[in-house]
UniProtKB/TrEMBL annotation:
Gene3D superfamilies: 2-enoyl-CoA Hydratase, Chain A, domain 1
InterPro entries cross-referenced by the UniProt entry: ClpP/crotonase-like_dom_sf, ECH/Chromodomain_protein, Enoyl-CoA_hydra/iso
Keywords, in A-Z order: Isomerase, Peroxisome
Record's subcellular location: Peroxisome
Coiled coil: none
Protein name: Enoyl-CoA hydratase/isomerase family protein
Lineage: Bacteria, Pseudomonadati, Pseudomonadota, Alphaproteobacteria, Hyphomicrobiales
Main location: other
Species for this entry: Roseibium salinum
Superkingdom of source: Bacteria
């Protein structure tokens, strides 16, 4: 079974995270498959790229079981973490540079670094039962995936800090009010909403959409995001090796067993 699946609909391509038995939690094979799919699809000039997840969750971020499996030595844990977070950040940057509008159909929970896939989307249709939540302060991780690199530009620095200090759960209605979602609807209507957006895009020139996106996410702006993401990765690697973070991962896993 492929960890990432693609489906063409009405000229747009849907890209599905496909690890539903683990709530699409991120592991290196999945982030690697995501990056490979993005590179391939960028050459095919879809009308839009649509990100979504199979099962009940969009993605619950980095799979803590994967970190714990590599916690036998500091170097193994560091290498695993650097590879996973690095791939995720590269995928986010590749989404920002994607040569077509990027949409997201958020079918369920979005936690941890996987929120970066939404932060990189142009328009987000969110299930009325979906939510975003960081969880970093409960585990002891440093934020990754754009929680400090992208979120402050979306909601303001103070609100971005408040959300992360309090580990606040951002429901669909609040996400809409904050501008993190463009539309909220029942989960069963997500595809209909996305199809309507794709139809709207089709009324304009694809070339215009492309250069508009390139103008917003020009090289200078993307390089600034890259710089911030690199800082996130460095801080993540600093904290993930600490004994209290290992204890936090074990405690978090027990609480959800």
């Amino acid at each position: 079974m492929s960890l990432v699946e693609t489906e063409w609909r009405h000229g747009a391509v849907w890209l599905w995270l496909n690890r539903p038995e683990r709530h699409n939690a991120l592991v290196p094979p999945l982030t690697g498959a995501l990056r490979s799919a993005l590179a391939e699809l960028a050459e095919q000039e879809p009308a839009a790229l649509v990100l979504s997840g199979r099962g009940h969750s969009f993605s619950t971020g980095g799979d803590i079981a994967g970190f714990l499996e590599h916690a036998g030595s500091r170097q193994a844990l560091r290498d695993y973490s650097e590879g996973l977070v690095g791939d995720l950040h590269d995928a986010i940057l590749e989404l920002l540079a994607f040569p077509a509008p990027v949409l997201a159909a958020v079918n369920g929970a979005v936690t941890g670094g996987s929120a970066g896939l939404l932060f990189a989307a142009d328009m987000v249709a969110m299930s009325d039962r979906a939510f975003l939540q960081p969880y970093y302060c409960e585990v002891g991780f440093a934020p990754d995936g754009g929680w400090t690199a992208l979120l402050p530009d979306r909601v303001g620095p103070s609100k971005a800090l408040e959300i992360q200090y309090r580990n606040a759960r951002i429901g669909a209605a609040e996400a809409l009010a904050l501008g993190l979602a463009s539309s909220v609807c029942p989960r069963s209507e997500l595809a209909t909403q996305i199809d309507a957006w794709v139809d709207d895009l089709g009324k304009g020139f694809a070339r215009t959409h492309r250069v508009t996106r390139q103008g917003v996410w020009d090289e200078r702006r993307r390089e600034e995001v890259r710089r911030r993401l690199d800082l996130e990765r460095a801080r993540f690697l600093e904290l993930v090796e600490r004994p209290e973070t290992l204890d936090g991962m074990k405690r978090f896993t027990r609480q959800r067993a």
